Amino acid sequence: MAKRLYEVWKGKNKFIFRGRLIFGPDAKSLIITLLLIIVPVIIFCTNVARNLLGETSGNIAGYAILMVTVVFTIYVLLLLLLTSARDPGIVPRNLHPPTEEMCYDSSASIDVGRQTPTPRLPPTKEVIVNGVPVRVKYCITCQLYRPPRCSHCSVCDNCVERFDHHCPWVGQCIGMRNYRSFFLFISSSTILCIFIFGMSALNIKFLTNDYGTVWKAIKESPLSVVLMVYCFIFLWFVGGLTCFHLYLIGTNQVSVPLNFWEFWCGSITCILFFM
Prior knowledge:
Elements: E1 14-16, E2 21-23, H1 29-55, H2 60-84, E3 90-91, E4 101-109, E5 115-120, E6 124-129, E7 132-139, E8 144-145, E9 150-153, E10 158-161, E11 165-167, E12 172-174, H3 179-211, H4 214-220, H5 222-250, H6 260-274
Antiparallel strand pairs: 1-2, 3-10, 4-5, 6-7, 7-8, 9-10, 11-12
């Protein structure tokens, strides 16, 4: 019986469910990312959101806060899975390498001083794309001339089309097929951080009204302050990354174009981040 492609894969990727999901070699870091998202949300739902339910008794707002947190967290986790478990745009290795050309190699010469032609492939060649000449590079590992905007990832050991970078937090390359989900993941994570920060601050405000001072409110719900500090710190990471990619999109430097809805989703996130 012939082996399936994932069973003879020459890259460093990891496959599960009979090759249906593909991860990078550092997929274990995904566990840390999951914990960084799930643990704070569990603390928020079991402590802060429960306090808000008591403060808004008889009001649907308390239940709405809890439902929004749960639903939006599931949405963020789904985007994380779509980013880390999908093919980022891997260009398969060439099973039939191009024929070597006779080129002059300066390192090989004969006694009379003339260079000896040796068979090798030129490191670059020029191809025509939409009527425009484009110079492409040859990848020795994958044995092919890379398409335009394609790069070889040293971590995964694959050529990835429209390669952006290899993200250790999702354990996967970011390229043509998962850049959109990656952008939505970081922008949605920013919104989630802002939401939890705001609701934790609101809980402190309610407790201050009940106990008279901020210090007593903090002593009553110290986890609210912990969540505020945690979200503030991580906002500089995911929020800054979102703003950076918005800049790349706005200046047309990104390899994968986004549609109108995806762009404005990230733009709203950027506005909320700076408010």
